[in-house]
Specification:
Blueprint (H helix, E strand, L loop, with lengths): L1 E5 L8 E5 L9 E11 L1 H8 L10 E2 L3 E9 L11 E5 L8 E5 L3 E3 L6 H6 L1 H14 L7 E4 L5 H10 L6 E5 L5 H6 L4 E3 L6 H8 L5 E6 L4 H8 L1 E9 L13 H9 L6 H7 L2 E4 L9 H16 L7 E6 L3 H9 L6 E5 L1
Parallel strand pairs: 9-10, 9-12, 10-11, 12-13, 13-14, 15-16
Antiparallel strand pairs: 1-2, 1-4, 3-5, 3-7, 3-16, 5-6, 6-8
Helix pairs in contact: 3-4, 3-10
């Protein structure tokens, strides 16, 4: 089989498609013939050597895939050869064939394409987990979504709109505003031309928001915290500011590290605010939680409440171009890789 290998830390040019032995089928696992797999900002940072959880290169990255069950291991029930499935895996999905524990595989709803299946798990579980389990989003609340045109951003827009009366502010470049409006963003903000914090205050009459979903990091965590209304929640789920180019910059990493704010229990108690962190990659030991949220998302897909938007479909041989597209924040929605 072929797989996309991250041969060393560096720019997109370090990615190579190589012939690789097919994974062994163990008891309790299923082997899946991959038809599409998702690419996330986490993998872009892992390629640069800035994602601590990633295996050291040479390695195959990727958290999610969609395809067909090719073989079923001993002790597996409820899945059969030929079943169209979505799979979650802690790295290794950027390959033509993967082996995955059966509990990390869910049948795809009728009508869902393989590309949509690959676009759903990481982005939508992250957004669902932040809004409903951590953020406890309520009717009538105000939410600020950073990087609103990205994969997690669009998922958050769609999911937030399933709650009546929620008002959404989203940061994105001006060229993406029309699209995110269609996806549910009430107030798009061009972060390149205005200070988004000033704009949120202007639009809310100085009151701020109830939830901030922040994948930027550093000083933006402090700006988001200061925008919170009483009982507001800042949810940090990434550190995009750490990645300043195609390769890692030690100087920028130091600059970003020293800009991380200090939140104290006493300070949060005084302001009636809270700060939470979300890293879906650290929840593999809570697979029942992840599959519960994934099942809820499948139901939302079936009833038409959510629909992944595919930015582009890129063949394995052009994986470097896919990385560059996400790195430069050109994408609107999900970048999907296909063998």
């Amino acid at each position: 089989m072929r797989a996309i290998w991250n041969t060393r830390w560096g720019g997109p040019e370090v990615l190579e498609v190589r012939e690789t032995p097919e994974p062994e089928l163990m008891p309790g696992h299923v082997r899946v013939r991959v038809r599409a797999c998702g690419l996330n900002f986490a993998e872009v940072m892992a390629r640069q050597g800035m994602y601590p959880d990633a295996p050291k290169p040479p390695c195959v990255l990727g958290y999610e895939a969609a395809g067909e069950v090719e073989a079923v291991g001993e002790g597996v029930s409820g899945l059969s050869v030929g079943t169209r499935v979505v799979a979650l895996k802690r790295f290794g999905t950027h390959a033509e064939v993967i082996a995955v524990p059966a509990q990390q595989v869910l049948p795809m709803p009728e009508g869902m394409s393989f590309e949509e299946g690959a676009a759903l798990p990481v982005n939508y579980i992250t957004a669902y987990h932040m809004l409903f389990r951590v953020g406890n989003l309520r009717s009538g609340e105000r939410v600020l979504v950073h990087m609103a045109a990205g994969g997690v951003g669009l998922a958050a827009l769609q999911l937030a709109k399933t709650v009546p009366g929620v008002v959404i502010f989203g940061t994105a470049s001006a060229s993406k505003h029309d699209f995110i409006r269609k996806e549910g963003c009430d107030h798009p903000i061009d972060y390149r031309s205005v200070d988004y914090a000033d704009e949120v205050r202007r639009l809310t009459g100085g009151k701020g928001v109830d939830i901030v979903l922040d994948a930027l990091g550093g000083k933006d965590w402090k700006k988001g915290y200061d925008l919170l209304r009483p009982v507001g929640r800042l949810i940090a789920f990434g550190f995009a500011n750490m990645a300043s180019g195609e390769t890692r910059s030690i100087l920028n990493m130091i600059k970003q590290a020293v800009s991380i704010p200090l939140f104290t229990p006493l300070g949060m108690m005084d302001k009636n605010r809270s700060v939470a962190g979300v890293n879906i990659g650290h929840l593999w030991d809570e697979i029942d939680l992840l599959t519960e949220e994934m099942a809820a998302l499948m139901d939302l897909y079936k009833n038409g409440s959510i629909r992944p938007h595919i930015d582009c479909i890129v063949p394995f041989d052009k994986a470097a171009d896919a990385h560059r597209r996400i790195q430069s924040r050109q994408n609107i929605g999900k970048v999907v890789l296909v063998p």
